[in-house]
Amino acid sequence: MSSSTAPLRRVLVRRPPANCSDWRALGWRAEPDPVALAAEHEALCLLLEEAGAEVVVAPATGLDAIYVYDPALVADGRAVLLRPAKEARRSEPAQLAPELERASVAVVGPVEAPAFAEGGDCFWLDERTICAGLGYRTNRAGVDRVGELLDMQVESFDLPHLRGPAECLHLLSLLSPLADDVVLAYQPLLPVRLVRLLAERGVEMVEAPEDELASLGPNALALAPRVALLPEHNRQTRRRLEAADVEVLVYRAAELSKGDGGPTCLTLPLARG
């Protein structure tokens, strides 16, 4: 089922590496503690299992690779290997391919140069439509190739410049679908056409607070319709979601978020429904 919010049944994660010495070269905001990072990741896996998902754990490769949503996009048991714009991550799609095959997910093709695309810029509007952000991490050739390989319509939207190409700004940095009729979003930075599209569909928008934009407040993983997973430090976002009748589960992310990755980034859904 092509959905960003149906009940999560199966999900792939990648273990953190023991050696995190390249954190600065990869643009992490601070040095992670490898032991604490591994412990937080293990706790996240247990939480996903308790929420009803089968967790497929892939071995460690690089530090950025824990953000496993970016190198591939999976729909209906098929996967497209994406092409990250971040050069240090270019090897990740090929490294992920055998893990997907072992998980019985068929790789239907790659995104190749000069196109580039990262998973953090994509979500499903409905079963036949992908919403994609166009910015410094994903270009039009990339989303066109994704649509071609998955035989799906793609609605693309220009993302803001904000702090420029060095910043990791994805569409899912600004918006997270939590049910067919509700999204969590930081509306001031959303593309106007996307805001209008969601309004036309009657989608409620829960506003993420500006104070938690830098700590990935708008980034939440739907475990089921109106059941969201958040890092525990985004307390204002949690209160706003709960006031909108969204159930919230939290995980510790003091180390996991140092590379600007939230719960959607840390997980690659393989099956929903």
Topology as a string of helices (H) and strands (E): EHEEEHEEEHEEEHEEEHEE
**Parts with pLDDT < 50 across at least 5 consecutive residues:** none
Beta-strand content estimate? 25-35%
The first-to-last residue Cα distance is: 6 Å
Biggest pleated sheet: 3 strands, mixed
How many separate domains make up the residues?
Answer: 1
Give the helix tally: 5
Question: What is the CATH domain class?
Answer: Alpha Beta
Would you give an account of this structure?
This protein has a single domain (8-272), classed as L-arginine/glycine Amidinotransferase, Chain A, CATH 3.75.10.10. The chain is 21% helix and 27% strand. The chain has helices at residues 34-50, 92-102, 140-150, 192-200, 235-243, and strands at residues 8-14, 54-58, 72-75, 78-81, 106-110, 122-126, 129-134, 153-158, 175-179, 182-185, 204-207, 221-224, 227-231, 247-251, 268-272. The radius of gyration is 17 Å and the shape is globular.
Write the layout of secondary structure elements.
Elements: E1 8-14, H1 34-50, E2 54-58, E3 72-75, E4 78-81, H2 92-102, E5 106-110, E6 122-126, E7 129-134, H3 140-150, E8 153-158, E9 175-179, E10 182-185, H4 192-200, E11 204-207, E12 221-224, E13 227-231, H5 235-243, E14 247-251, E15 268-272
